[in-house]
Amino acid sequence: MTELKLKTDTRQANWRRANPDRYLSHVAVQKALTQGKLVKGPCEVCGSRIVDAHHDDYSKPLTVRWLCRRHHSRLHAGGEDMFCEKGQAHEHR
Ligand SMILES: [Zn+2]
Ligand SMILES: [Zn+2]
Fold it and tell me: Which ligand is nearest to the CA of 82?
């Protein structure tokens, strides 16, 4: 059994190929952080200091929201609804 272990075939590399705009946005954020143009804030939901940059719009790579891992994945999974922290009731108005 032959297993090819190409460095360019990692999940991360594949993700970059599939999502070039997201990848470039993250690169822009990392660069801005090291240059001091962008400063990390606490998670906007729980105030955690360990945060990721979330992009509402990938065409604006430096317009980001700071969210911890947990709330970041919840935002992607459930949209803005996740900010209704109390209970799981969905209000339809
Ligand atoms: Zn959080
Ligand atoms: Zn995000």
Answer: 1
- Ligand nearest to the Cα of 83, by number: 1
- pLDDT level of residue 79 (50, 70, 90 thresholds): confident
% of the chain residues with pLDDT over 70 = 77
Q: How far is the CA of 36 from the centre of ligand 1 (A)?
A: 23
Q: For the chain, what are the domain ranges?
A: 8-82
Residues paired with 68 in a beta bridge: 51
Give the per-residue pLDDT at 3: 61
